[in-house]
Design goal:
The protein is of the alpha+beta class. It has four domains: 2-99, DnaJ domain (Helix Hairpins); 120-252, HSP40/DNAj peptide-binding domain (Sandwich), CATH 2.60.260.20; 269-331, Urease metallochaperone UreE, N-terminal domain (HSP40/DNAj peptide-binding domain, Sandwich); 339-370, no CATH class. The chain is built from nine helices and 15 strands.
């Protein structure tokens, strides 16, 4: 009975002065929470969903809302919502307006509607330098193209008839529980039209196989995973519909010297023992070529130096660049000559170092350690 129903505003959890947008947001939240597809077999959730749907159906209509505000549930009896039915209102239309394709109805396609073509993905491998500074590359995309003979309609006469299964609606509706559910028509793939005189060139598909060459501009600063969108370069639409887009996904090759973290570039450079001890000016590789870098005296192995503005340009950053970080690694000299060995031994002697560390056995050192 009407008197046993909860207040519609209470059901939706909104104030009585809520506007249309507020009603819609409240209903969306409840519908997403209690929809039967998300709560299979839950009778309580289905009842709450039904209650919220009825409340939104009534309050979203200005005339019904006015009658309800004045007379309560008795004022809207006979306007729908009785026993789970909806008079003159299809619940899928409400769902389509709020949720789009979430519940399978999608935006209802009008008669003669045309499907947009599918988006395509192309994986493009580029060098470290191309990723840093950008490039323009030519790619070959295997993709269907619109049939020129039938202008993409699939029909010799360039015309199509309403689908006999869905009557041109592009969708088939059936009852599920207390409300109707719509699904795309399988015979016409949701277009609402069927071809009765197939084009010989494309066999009624409206597309022919092809390989297309495209020039792709890669902006500086991209990294692996960056997507470059080429609008309208995807598959052509069905029955003359608009084409989809092409997404070029960048994959950057590893570099033999540099590695990258966001816009910062890192590399390691070997230096000699003498350069580390006395200091030197060395040449180091950068993305811009070799540059000179000062190594101060007494530099320790693993010391990192920063080269400002020698990193990766910021993507769409107006010329700003990151920095390059150079880690110097001191190399131990090998294959010493007798003269070199003599000089190093004298250096160690002058420094107070033990030039013959094997003079004492390992166990002697251990004994000395524990005797302390």
């Amino acid at each position: 009975m009407a008197g046993q129903k909860r207040d519609y505003y209470e059901v939706l959890g909104v104030e009585r002065n809520a506007d249309a947008d507020g009603l819609k947001k409240a209903f969306r939240k409840l519908a997403m929470q209690h929809h039967p597809d998300r709560n299979p077999g839950d009778a309580a959730a289905e009842e709450k969903f039904k209650e919220a749907s009825e409340a939104y159906e009534m309050l979203s209509d200005p005339d019904r809302r006015a009658r309800y505000d004045r007379f309560g549930h008795q004022g809207v009896e006979g306007f729908g919502g009785q026993g789970g039915g909806f008079n003159n209102v299809n619940i899928n239309d409400i769902f389509g307006e709020i949720f789009g394709d979430i519940f399978g109805g999608g935006g209802r396609r009008g008669r003669g509607g045309r499907n947009r073509g599918a988006d395509l993905r192309y994986n493009l491998e580029i060098t470290f330098e191309e990723a840093a500074f950008g490039s323009e590359v030519t790619v070959k995309i295997p993709r269907p193209k619109r049939c020129e003979e039938c202008d993409g309609t699939g029909s010799k006469s360039k015309q199509a008839r309403p689908c006999p299964t869905c009557g041109g609606a592009g969708e088939v509706r059936f009852t599920q529980g207390f409300f109707a559910v719509a699904r795309p028509c399988t015979q016409c793939s949701g277009s609402g039209r069927v071809v009765v005189d197939p084009c010989k060139s494309c066999r009624g598909v409206g597309k022919t196989d092809s390989v297309t060459e495209l020039s792709v501009k890669i902006p500086g600063g991209v990294d692996t995973g960056t997507r470059v969108r080429l609008a309208g370069e995807g598959e052509p639409g069905e029955q003359g519909g608009p084409p989809g887009d092409l997404y070029v996904v960048v994959h950057v090759k590893e570099h033999s010297i540099f590695h990258r973290e966001e816009n910062e570039v890192f590399c390691e450079v070997p230096i000699s023992f003498v350069q580390a001890a006395l200091g030197a000016q060395i040449e180091v590789p950068t993305l811009d070529g070799m540059v000179k870098m000062k190594v101060p005296e007494a530099t320790q192995s693993g010391k990192i130096f920063r080269l400002k503005g020698k990193g990766i340009p910021h993507l769409n950053g107006g010329g700003a660049r990151g920095d390059q970080h150079v880690r110097v690694m001191v190399e131990t000299p090998q294959n010493l000559s007798a003269k070199q060995r003599e000089l190093l031994e004298k250096f160690a002697e002058a420094s107070g170092e033990d030039v013959n560390p094997q003079a004492r056995s390992f166990f002697d050192k251990v004994k000395q350690l524990f005797d302390k």
